[in-house]
Design goal:
Helix content: 25-40%
CATH superfamily of the largest domain: tm_1862 like domain
Shape: globular
Number of domains: 3
Distance between the termini: 50 Å
Bound molecules: iron/sulfur cluster
CATH class of the largest domain: Alpha Beta
Strand order of the largest sheet: 2-1-3-4-5-6
Number of strands: 19
Low-confidence stretches: 137-142
């Protein structure tokens, strides 16, 4: 079977990149991208299960596709990939009453997707030739293809990925995680930690740079735990040096480092390598040492603040961002106050904050009752986000009048003649296309100096400095 595919992605950069891999695999198998869901012969939903809310999106989406199928009479192959697929496996078919899902493929079996789609398509067309009751019996039961086997092979054939971003390339360096933080489902959905060989990573970086990607984003669950399996001398800091040497690479980012693996060599690499963005995403999760211990985070509030101090001393202009959870089991009002005071102390450039939700298989789900009420979680996240918003606004206002280098990554869809990009610290900057042009497309991928004129909590506005 060939035809058109559509991929819908929920969740993190890892999932975005997995979708680029799925697109490449389906393209290599002869499929072309569809314009929309009505046009698609294969729909892949690449799921996220890191929060309950993210998981529920899958079921909502399946319901929408079912209604669409009834309206149009079309019956695309529906494949569920990603973390919910890995976590639920065949149980997904029971939860959806055996309807609509034809393929379930786990995070570690993406390479099997085209074959599973082919098998499902053959079974679907065979059942279509049956009549009446026979077809109803055969409609789903014999052929949902489920493959969630763990696989240690972290290689991915060079050249398969179809990158969705013209400016940046995601390059996975580590899959999985061994840390088992009490709240986190990732070790159960992405498996244990596996490192990609240095040679594979550098080959992919070179290929991406040759294809015009200016920014490389190195991805791993604990990206700075990297140790090359093919080179004992290559840890994460050494890998940054090697990527820095690749011609055509202009910027390097990485996500996400763990505070406890952020040592002097990494801080020096960020400080000394000009292509490495002056931005560190340092997930903290709570400001209370008591809660951090319950979370099994392996760093205390004091150690974290000490680390932030050392990073700031070495790199004064560094932007630091974080992830925060409120309402973890046992979090008291006093613990939450510690979170607020840590946020004030660090002055984060940006933050992803979430209300705690129970995730299957995790230590917290087995041993820690979800004791903070939903109302209290909501009150805490509202308070946290208000504090963070004030901090971001203040930090951004300080940038007004400064000139910053912006890597242009897109053209505004809403305002003609406006383009946007990011600073080294990862702040979004909007500004008119240089020279008063209306079409900004030719500027995408270029880095220009921009004078900041106005600031908001989430982005900046400016104009290109003269001579850009
Ligand atoms: S370090 Fe903790 S939060 Fe991060 S992926 Fe591993 S288990 Fe999850």
């Amino acid at each position: 079977m060939t035809g058109k595919f559509l991929i819908e992605t929920f969740g993190c950069q890892m999932n975005v990149h997995d979708s680029e891999r799925i697109a490449g695999l389906l393209h290599r198998a002869g499929y072309e991208p569809a314009d929309d869901e009505r046009d698609a012969d294969v729909i892949v939903i690449n799921t996220c299960s890191v929060r309950e809310h993210a998981e529920e999106k899958l079921y909502t989406r399946l319901g929408e596709l079912r209604v669409l199928g009834e309206e149009t009479g079309r019956r695309p192959i529906v494949a569920v990939a990603g973390c919910v697929a890995q976590q639920e496996g065949a149980a997904l078919l029971r939860r959806t009453n055996g309807q609509l899902i034809d393929v379930v493929v786990g995070t570690q079996r993406l390479k099997m997707l085209p074959m599973l789609v082919e098998k499902a398509a053959s079974a679907l067309s065979a059942s279509a030739s049956l009549a009446g009751a026979e077809r109803r019996r055969a409609a789903h039961a014999p052929f949902p293809e489920v493959d969630t086997s763990p696989l240690d092979d972290v290689s991915f054939p060079l050249g398969v990925v179809r990158r969705g971003d013209r400016v940046r390339a995601y390059v996975t360096i580590i899959e999985g995680c061994n840390d088992h933080c009490a709240f986190c489902v990732v070790p159960y959905t992405r498996g244990h930690e596996r490192m990609r060989p240095r040679a594979d990573i550098l080959a992919e970086v070179r290929e991406a740079a040759e294809a015009g990607r200016r920014e490389i984003q190195l991805l791993g669950q604990i990206v700075n735990h990297y140790q090359a399996p093919d080179d004992p001398a290559c840890d994460f800091a050494a890998l940054l040096v090697a990527v820095h040497e690749v011609a055509g690479v202009e910027r390097i980012r990485f996500a996400s480092p763990h505070p406890r693996h952020t040592g002097p060599a990494l801080i020096e690499a960020v400080r000394d390598l000009p292509k490495v963005c002056k931005h560190m995403h340092l997930p903290v999760q709570s400001g209370s040492t008591r809660v951090l211990q319950a979370m099994r985070r392996r760093h205390s509030r004091e150690e974290y603040l000490d680390l932030v101090g050392r990073i700031r001393a070495a790199i004064p202009d560094v932007a630091i961002s974080t992830d925060m959870i409120v309402g973890f089991p046992g979090e008291t009002a006093a613990d939450f106050d510690q979170t607020l005071s840590l946020v004030e102390a660090v002055q984060y450039e940006s933050m992803f904050s979430f209300k705690y939700s129970v995730r299957p298989n995790t230590l917290a789900s087995r041993r820690m009752p979800d004791g903070v009420s939903e109302g209290e979680k909501t009150a805490r996240i509202v308070a946290l986000q208000a504090v963070q918003r004030e901090i971001q606004t203040r930090l951004h206002e300080r940038a007004v009048g400064a000139t910053v280098d912006v890597l242009i990554d897109g053209v505004s869809r809403r305002r003609e003649g406006e383009i946007s990009g990011r600073t080294s610290g990862n702040t979004i900057v909007n500004f008119p296309v240089p020279g008063g042009e209306t079409d900004g497309e030719r500027w995408v991928g270029r880095t220009v100096p921009v004078v900041i004129r106005r600031a908001g909590p989430n982005s900046l506005w400016g104009e290109t400095a003269s001579g850009a």
